[in-house]
Each structure stands twice: as structure tokens, then as C-alpha cells.
Amino acid sequence: MSPRIVESRSPKPLAAASHARLAAVLARGKELHDIVNSPVVAAAVGSVDALPAVPRIYLELRDLTSRPETGAAEIAQAVASDPVLSLKLLQLVNSVGFGMRRRVASVQQAVSLLGMEQIKALVLTSQVFSNAAKCRVQGFSLDQFQDCAMRVGRLAQGFMASRGIGAEAFTAGLLIDIGKLVLAMAQPDAYTAVLLRLAESGEDVEVVEREVLGVSHSEAGAYLLWQWGLPISTVECVAFHHRAELMRQGPYELVAAAHAADALYDIIACGDPESRLNLQLLERAGVIGELPKWREQVSEALS
Questions:
Q1: Contact 135, 185 (CB under 8 A)
Q2: Of the ranges 10-19, 61-70, 129-138, which is most confident?
Q3: Within 10 A of 224 (CB to CB), how many other CB atoms are there?
Q4: Closest CA to 238 of 258, 209, 213
Q5: Which has the closest alpha carbon to 234: 209, 254, 217?
Q6: Exposed, middle or buried by CB within 10 Å (0-12, 13-18, 19+), for 17?
Q7: Which of 95, 135, 147, 169 could cross-link with 257 by S-S, CB 3.0 to 4.6 Å?
């Protein structure tokens, strides 16, 4: 029996989003507006009651970091108020994929070492990873996915560190494939069919996802992050990291860093073809000259 999209009983409405925010996303391009305002995407990802809600702690951290007087101690106290979240965050920070040279033993130490923006990004992902722990999809490893997300986030951060947007690049790289988890949680049987077909055919992942599910993981991830209120630049990176040609205007550096980290990791670690790398995007972003150095960084991170 072929997999089908289960209609959402309670799709997440976008009516609560401000007109100003919708106008801003439309100004970035009709394609992005259509994704975050799509009933088809809402039906595909909203069919499970466990669709992750933005963590309460993340909202609190966002409020705290908007105040100039907020210090690391207040950030650590907010995270530490949720013991389960604290444990998950420390597990992520100490994962092999994150690549810390020494073990991080406390939330306070994590905040001091990583900074507020990285902590906020890890709080977001810890929520999704925790929700996905019970997801049973044949051929899908949450541990592998988590490890890859940590590595891609750190690589993207390194690529953009000298340009002053390392923290934003970390968040974009960390969340770039979050839509795969969303779709796997929403439609485990259908996503199992996607993975089985990919293993047999080697086809493009987004082509198979659209044929089986009606949407891609890029669209599902962008939809979730829009619901969470993340910056438009991050939503854009997730939406277009496989189809950067749909981005109508710059700046392109952030999506180039996230895309390159994701693609180079798959090329070097998994043997994916060089065609995974969008050289036109790197050219448009003005970072094509960085490619040899980026390859070296990925190889070193994997050694």
C-alpha cells in the first residue's frame, strides 16, 4: 500500500504571525512566503500532535538576550531550571560531533565556553531530539542524525568565523536538516518508504520526499522554524539549502556556509558525488575562493 499524507487535525496556523513579519518574508521572495504559508506543508508536518513546540526556555533565553545587561550567569540559571533540558544540552555539547576538546561538566561552563547564541540553538535542537527519541523509522538513526547536525553546525561556524557571523552559521548548520526529523515523526511509515527507496536507488532525497510525501525536508524544516519565530535568514537557509537558485536576493553568505558544511560533510564522510556542492551559490556569495580551506577543515574535523 503506497504511503499517503495524513491530513492534519490541527495544522499550525500562521494567522498569529504579524503582518510585518509576513511582509518581510514576502520581500525576501515569493518562494519562501509560499513555503511558510503552505497548507500542503502544514498538512504534511502537522499530522502529529507531538510536532515540537518552541521550548519555553528558548523563549525565556530570547527575552534575556535582548537585554544588554544580561550576563552568562542569568542564561545558565534559566537553562538549569529545567533539569531534563540541562542534561540533554550537556549530552549534545559533549557529543563526538560537537568536537569539544574537553568535557563540559555544567550548564554554567557550557554557557561560558559557547556563548548565548549557540546555547539558544542547542536548546532548540534538544527539544526536537527529545521528541524524536521514540520515533521508529527503519533505516533512520537518531544518534547518527544528531552527530551529523552537531558537526555541520560547527563546520558552518568555522567557515564564517572570520566574517563575524559564526554564531548564525552554527544555528543554520545545526538546523539545516531538521525537517527530516519532523517528517519522520509526522509520518514514520511514509518516511521509512522514503529511506528504503533512497537506499535502493540513490536518487535525490528531495525528489523522493516530494513524490512520497508531497513535501521535502527543506520545506518541512523551514515551516517549523518559521512557526518557532526564528530569524528569516535562518529559515531561508533551511528552505533553500538544496535549491539556492530560488533565493532572489542576498546576502548569500549564511546559506552558502550552511550548504557547504552540509555538502562537504556528505562528500568527504559519506562519499556523495561532488555535484552535491553548489558552486554557483558559493560564487554568488563571494566565498568560492574559500573552498580549498573549507575542504581541509572538514577533513581535519573528521580525522
A1: yes
A2: 61-70
A3: 27
A4: 258
A5: 254
A6: middle
A7: 169
Q: Which three cell numbers stand for residue 79?
A: 537553562
Please check whether residue 79 is in contact with residue 85, taking contact to mean a CB–CB distance below 8 angstroms. Answer: yes
CB 77 within 8 A of CB 107: no
* CA-based max dimension of the chain: 58
Please give the Cα distance from 107 to 113 (Å, whole number): 10
- For the record, the C-alpha cell of 70 comes out as 544580561
Query: What's the whole-number mean pLDDT along residues 245-273?
Result: 89
Distance CA 151, CA 3 (A): 32
> If you count them, how many residues does the chain have?
303
- Cβ proximity of 160 and 122 under 8 Å: no
Torsion of CA 36, 121, 132, 105, to 10 degrees: 180
User: Which set of grid coordinates corresponds to residue 93?
Assistant: 555539547
The model's pLDDT over 176-213, given as tens digits with 9 standing for 90+, comes to 999 999 899 888 999 999 999 998 887 889 999 999 99
Joined together, the cell numbers standing for residue 23 give 511582509
